[in-house]
């Protein structure tokens, strides 16, 4: 058996959707990476990873925590 299980595929789709939403939010805000990192309470390098689509570096839980901080 190769590829992802159904659960893994669904989890990856969820993370992808969350990342796309957060990426759009960051780009729409038009503020510095430092300002965004303060909003999300994460390192600036992680904001850069988010904007570059490094999905493997983010858990669903971590992405949801960022989403909670959006007003």
Task: Please summarize what this structure is.
By secondary structure, the protein is mostly helical. It is built from 4 helices and no strands. The protein has helices spanning 6-29, 33-40, 44-51, 60-68.
Q: Note the main sheet.
A: none
Enter the CATH topology name: 434 Repressor (Amino-terminal Domain)
What's the CATH architecture name? Orthogonal Bundle
Write down how many β-strands occur, each being a DSSP E stretch of 2 or more residues. 0
Q: Order of helices and strands, N to C? A: HHHH
Structural class: mainly alpha
Which oligomeric form is depicted?
A: single chain
Quick one: CATH class? Mainly Alpha
What does it look like?
The protein has 71 residues and is mainly α. It has one domain: lambda repressor-like DNA-binding domains (434 Repressor (Amino-terminal Domain)). Helices cover 69% and strands 0% of the residues. The protein has four helices and no strands. The longest helix is centred in the N-terminal third of the chain and has 24 residues, at 6-29. The protein is elongated, with a radius of gyration of 13 Å.
List keywords for this structure.
434 Repressor (Amino-terminal Domain); elongated; mainly alpha; 71 residues; single chain
Please specify the SSE layout and strand pairing.
Elements: H1 6-29, H2 33-40, H3 44-51, H4 60-68
